[in-house]
Each structure stands twice: as structure tokens, then as C-alpha cells.
Design goal:
The structure holds 2 protein chains of 2 kinds. Chain A is of the alpha/beta class. Chain A contains 10 helices and 10 strands. Chain A is globular, with a radius of gyration of 17 Å. Chain B has 2 domains: 55 residues, no CATH class; 310 residues, ABC transporter involved in vitamin B12 uptake, BtuC (Orthogonal Bundle), CATH 1.10.3470. By secondary structure, chain B is mostly helical. Classes of the chains: A alpha/beta, B mainly alpha. Chain A: Keywords: Amino-acid transport, ATP-binding, Nucleotide-binding, Transport.
């Protein structure tokens, strides 16, 4: 579904990604783990076209997208839940969700998606008319996910969904990610919380200093000695 | 098929009969001795009757018919919970709107001439405040050169009127469009900036416009400005004492009244009311459209907007252009009211006052902006006897305002809805 071939990216003079090769198949949950500053978020941003890949190819369903603008890419069946949630704080929950479905013209489909999101996150229905910024971190994360789902994606990027959340909420978020797979949505998960991410994932990649250093199934990575040492606390 | 639907159907068909028999059944015939009304031929009468019968039966069976169609649509919708319905608009709100409108319309006939004139000025500021509110309050783009677009609007009408004799109502849309064009042109290079940088560039733009008007002496008259700009007319009726040309008709002649300069003031005021109501209506509509929500989303988080596939440049540009258009309308109205414009009227302090109106009223809130515009124009007038302390008091008031109500007089509220049965 998504394929990166020898992708490099630069911030000015500094090279942030070196010949990254990644593929995500339809229906998979694939996670990308790595330390702070390893290039996880940069990799996601490059797929989204900001910064543009300086080298290599990015294919979404066989179509090269690395030359396209961010708004063109994000209007395909791709959605991202950005790092730090980035909800619209002074808009209501409902308005946030509606922004997610901005380019959806089919009203019936829109209503169906909205209902689906509320079923997935009943908390959001309770808070429908509350300003999004007044909700707890976990609820905001749910809103960010709901907003992304409103654009009816087939491929969903999640950038650190567990960031700054209580363990019990993290568990809920991961449960929902599994539910998304059941709905047929392909998930590409970027996480520092390697343990939980890998347990859920079909496959995983490990990134270090802008290079992919390891690639394996989630289960194998969990038992991999190096990974255990570096990311799972021994 | 209750009794009420039978009555409904009966009324509908009677209305249909009355309307169609006039339209189809009668005909004007041009006879040598003038127009005659004659009955149409039988074919038309038959069609009228067919139509009436059709209307009667559709109305009678309206309920079962619509049930059939709604059954098709709502299939599969009744799963689990119901989405809450929007709360009815509070009647108090509606009552207040009507009362305010009525007050606005009665005002010129009870107040003094000076008060009416002041009210017109206030309405111009309301228009400006509402326009800038789109840019600053909704889209979150700090624009310190808004007065530039105001000047463009004013000079558009001034120049069109003096050189080409174009009337106010024709020039109004042209002024709006031209100001919008300037907004668009300025927006293109500038909108990749944000925050402070954007503010500085727009500030520069406002000054450039003013200095340009000052120096293009051949066209704009430089510091002397343009004078004797025509007042608006009522469908071509002029409000002067004497007609400007032989063809022109005068308002007081037409209605058989004695000449009074009050008519002119009142008419200008009423035209301003009309424009403000139109502005409120249009912006309200825009707010409910996706573009309005996109403006607000952009104000909240640009990166999130991009992640949703929105193009921030287009959204910003639309806010800038639409905001500028309203400044253009206000500007040409200002020119018409004063009859005289010069670059003096478009200094930075004007931009600052308009911005103060938006901030004071509560960013994004229309009612707040209107209220603030009223306060900001009327208070300085009322405090005239304090002379040089006037601006001091004004500044103090702003400072206290920001301490006690930093969110503005009437901060923007989100539409409220109620959950029914939990």
C-alpha cells in the first residue's frame, strides 16, 4: 500500500534520512520505533511531503507521491494523527471532527463516519459541544484520532499516540488501534513506547540516526536482544 | 388523512386557483381604444382545473407520500443512539434582534441631526470592525494595515465619481471588488509570514497606500484630497436643494415635500443600516460554511490544517480578500457620507482603532464587535469636553478592559446544543 524506496530527506544542509526503505502492506499494522531524534517524525513528515524527499521514491498504492504537495497527499486516502495531537483547541469537539471530513462531499457518508467515530470513542459524544482544549490529554488524543478517521482513510499514520498519557489510557488507545485494523484500516505507528507498539504490530522497523537498522516481525523484534537492550529496558 | 390535512389541501388548491386563474386565465389584449382584459380560451381553463385538482390530492396525501420516501432514506440509520438535535434559537435572542433592528430604523426620526450623523459614522466602523474581524478574529492574521483597503474603497468611489460621474450604488461593488483585489495581491507574497512579521508587512502596506495617495497628485489631488463627491441617490432621486442636471429629479420634488437637508442625512444613515445588515448576514453565512470553519481551524493550528489536506495559503487568502472587500464597501460609503476624502483620513490610527474594536468586542464575536464599534465611536464624542484628556481616558479604559475582561466584551460563543434523554 505504501512503499518507500531509498528515500532521503534534508533539513537545509543536514541530512535527516538516509536511503530509507519501508513497505506497508494493506491491512497491516506496522510500527517504527527509535530513540529521540532518530528521525521517526521526520520520516512521517517526509511521506506527507514536508520536507519533500530529496532522493528516492514514495509510492502510495503504486502512485508516486513524493513530488506532490502536502495538501494533495493528505487528500488521498491517507490521514495522520500528528505528534502532540494538534487539535483545534477553541473549536468544539464536533467542529474538530467536521474539519476532519472537510473534503467529504457525500453527506450521508459524512454522517455515517461521524456516528462511527462516536461509537468508537463514546467519550467524544459526551463532550460533543465542549471546547476541545478543555478536555484531558487522553480525550484530546481520541479526538485527534477521530478527526483523522473522519477523512475516511485507508492508511492512517499515528505519531506517538501514547505521548504523555496515563498507562490505562495508553491501553485504551492501543485497543482502538486494533479495532481500526478490524475495520480494514492500515496503520503505520510511530512510537517510543516500543513494548506496546511491537506487541500489536505485524511488522516493525527500527530507526537510528536516520537509517533503518532493523526490520522484522513484531514478535521477533520483541525478543531481539539488541532491541530489548536499547528500547525495552533490557 | 386527518381533518387538518383536508383543510390544508383545500387552502392550497384555493390559493393555486387564485394565482393561476390570474396568470393563465386572463390576458391583456391590445385594442385600438387601449388595453382590455379578456378571458383566455377554454384550453387554459382546463389546465388550471387539472392543476388545482393535482395540488389538492398531493396535499391531501402528503403525509403517506413523504413517508414512502423517508422510509427509503433512513434505512439503516436507526442503529443504537440518536445524535442530539440543535437547540431552538432562544426566543429572547430573536426578540432582541428584531428590537435592535426596529430601534435602528426609528432612530433617525426621533434623534437630532447630529446624532443621526454620528450613528452613520458608527455604522461605518461596525462594517470595518466586522470585516477586520474575519481577518484577525477568525483567521487569526494580525493585520495592521487594514485602513489601506478602506482607503482603496474610498478613493475608488471618489475618483470614479469626479472623473467619470459614476453614481454611488454603481461604485459600491466596484470599490469592494477593487479593495478585494488589493487584499488578494497583498496576500500573495505576504501570507507565508505569520504573527509579528505579518503585522509589520501589513502596517507597511497601509502606509504605502496612504503615501501613494498623497503623492499621486494628478489623480488623487494629493493632500488636498477629493471634494464634492456625490451623495448616494434613491433610485436616481437626488437629495440636493437644486438638481445637478436637467434630467435629475429631486427627492423632495418627487414626493411633494419641502426641501430639508435632514432627508439626506437620514437617507445616508438608512443606507448604512442596510449595508451593515447585509454585512452581518453575509459574514454569518460564511461562518456557517466550511470556509468559515476553516478560518477558525487555521487560527487554532496551521499544521493540523495541513495534515487534513487543507491548503493554508488559500484559506488565508480568502480571509484576507473577503475582509478587504468589506473595508472597500465601508470606504466608498465613507467617501459618500463625507463628500470629501484626503489621505489624512487613512492614517495608522484608524487601523489601530478598528483593531481595538475587534479586540475589545471579543475576537471572532460579531455582536461583540458591533457593541465595541458603538462604544469606540460614541465615547470619544461624548467625552469631547475633556479635550486633551480624552485620549488619556480612552487609553485608561482600554488598559482596564484588558485587565478585567481580556476575552473582550462579548467573547465568541460556540453554538450550544442539548443532549436529549441523556
Amino acid at each position: 500500500m505504501l512503499e518507500l524506496k531509498n528515500v532521503s530527506a534534508h533539513y537545509g544542509q543536514i541530512q535527516a534520512l538516509h536511503d530509507v526503505n519501508i513497505s506497508v502492506g494493506a491491512g497491516e499494522i506496522v510500527s517504527l520505533i527509535g530513540a529521540n531524534g532518530a528521525g521517526k517524525t521526520t520520516l512521517l513528515m517526509t511521506i506527507c511531503g514536508d520536507p519533500k524527499a530529496s532522493n528516492g521514491e514514495i509510492l502510495f498504492e503504486g502512485e508516486p507521491i513524493h513530488q506532490q504537495s502536502t495538501s494533495q497527499i493528505m487528500r488521498k486516502d491517507i490521514a495522520i494523527v500528528p505528534e502532540g495531537r494538534r487539535i483545534f483547541a477553541r473549536l468544539t469537539v464536533e467542529e474538530n471532527l467536521h474539519m476532519g471530513g472537510f473534503f467529504l462531499d457525500d453527506k450521508a457518508e459524512f454522517a455515517r463516519l461521524e456516528q462511527e467515530v462516536y461509537e468508537l470513542f463514546p467519550r467524544l459524544l459526551e463532550r460533543k459541544h465542549q471546547r476541545a482544549g478543555t478536555m484531558s490529554g487522553g480525550e484530546q488524543q481520541m479526538l485527534a484520532m477521530g478527526r483523522a478517521l473522519m477523512s475516511k482513510p485507508r492508511l492512517l499514520f499515528l505519531d506517538e499516540p501514547s505521548l504523555g498519557l496515563a498507562p490505562i489510557i495508553i491501553q485504551q488507545i492501543f485497543d482502538i488501534i486494533e479495532k481500526l485494523r478490524d475495520k480494514g484500516i492500515t496503520v503505520f505507528l510511530v512510537e517510543q513506547n516500543a513494548n506496546q507498539a511491537l506487541r500489536l504490530s505485524d511488522r516493525g522497523y527500527v530507526i537510528e540516526n536516520g537509517r533503518i537498522v532493523l526490520e522484522d516481525t513484531g514478535a521477533n523484534l520483541l525478543t531481539n536482544e539488541e532491541v530489548r537492550k536499547a528500547y525495552l529496558g533490557g | 388523512m386527518s381533518k387538518s390535512s383536508f383543510i390544508d389541501a383545500l387552502i392550497a388548491s384555493v390559493v393555486m386557483l387564485i394565482l393561476t386563474s390570474w396568470l393563465l386565465g386572463l390576458q391583456l389584449d391590445n385594442q385600438p381604444d387601449g388595453l382590455r382584459i379578456i378571458l383566455n380560451d377554454a384550453a387554459h381553463t382546463t389546465w388550471v382545473i387539472v392543476g388545482v385538482v393535482l395540488v389538492f390530492f398531493t396535499q391531501l396525501f402528503k403525509a403517506p407520500i413523504s413517508r414512502v420516501f423517508s422510509g427509503i432514506k433512513s434505512k439503516g440509520q436507526d442503529s443504537g443512539f440518536k445524535l442530539p438535535a440543535p437547540e431552538e434559537k432562544p426566543t429572547l435572542y430573536r426578540f432582541l434582534t428584531i428590537a435592535a433592528l426596529a430601534g435602528l430604523l426609528i432612530w433617525p426620526f426621533v434623534a437630532s441631526r447630529g446624532a443621526v450623523d454620528l450613528a452613520t459614522l458608527t455604522l461605518i466602523y461596525v462594517m470595518l470592525g466586522l470585516g477586520l474581524n474575519v481577518v484577525v478574529g477568525l483567521a487569526g492574521l494580525l493585520d495592521l494595515g487594514y485602513v489601506g483597503f478602506y482607503a482603496v474603497g474610498a478613493y475608488t468611489y471618489g475618483i470614479l465619481n469626479t472623473y467619470f460621474g459614476v453614481g454611488f450604488w454603481t461604485a459600491l461593488p466596484i470599490a469592494g471588488c477593487l479593495a478585494a483585489l488589493f487584499g488578494f495581491l497583498l496576500g500573495f507574497p505576504v501570507l507565508r509570514l505569520r504573527g509579528d512579521y505579518l503585522a509589520i508587512v501589513t502596517l507597511g502596506f497601509g502606509e504605502i497606500i496612504r503615501i501613494m495617495l498623497n503623492n499621486m497628485t494628478e489623480v488623487t489631488g494629493g493632500p488636498n484630497g477629493i471634494s464634492q463627491i456625490d451623495k448616494p441617490t434613491l433610485f436616481g432621486l437626488e437629495f440636493n436643494r437644486r438638481a445637478s442636471s436637467d434630467e435629475a429629479t429631486l427627492f423632495h420634488d418627487f414626493f411633494g415635500l419641502d426641501y430639508s437637508s435632514n432627508y439626506k442625512v437620514i437617507f445616508v444613515y438608512l443606507a448604512a443600516v442596510l449595508l451593515v445588515v447585509l454585512t452581518v448576514f453575509v459574514i454569518n453565512r460564511l461562518l456557517r460554511m466550511p470556509i468559515g470553519r476553516a478560518w477558525e481551524a487555521l487560527r487554532e493550528d496551521e499544521i493540523a490544517c495541513r495534515s487534513l489536506g487543507l491548503n493554508p495559503t488559500i484559506i488565508k487568502l480568502s480571509a484576507f480578500t473577503i475582509g478587504a472587500a468589506f473595508a472597500g464597501f465601508a470606504g466608498s460609503f465613507f467617501a459618500a457620507r463625507q463628500g470629501f476624502i484626503s489621505p489624512e483620513s487613512f492614517t495608522f490610527i484608524e487601523s489601530a482603532i478598528i483593531l481595538a474594536i475587534v479586540v475589545l468586542g471579543g475576537m471572532g464575536s460579531q455582536v461583540g464587535v458591533i457593541l465595541a464599534a458603538i462604544i469606540m465611536t460614541i465615547l470619544p464624542e461624548m467625552a469631547r469636553e475633556f479635550n486633551e484628556y480624552r485620549m488619556l481616558m480612552f487609553g485608561l479604559m482600554m488598559v482596564f478592559m484588558m485587565i478585567w475582561r481580556p476575552q473582550g466584551l462579548l467573547p465568541m460563543t460556540r453554538p450550544k446544543m442539548e443532549m436529549r434523554n441523556g
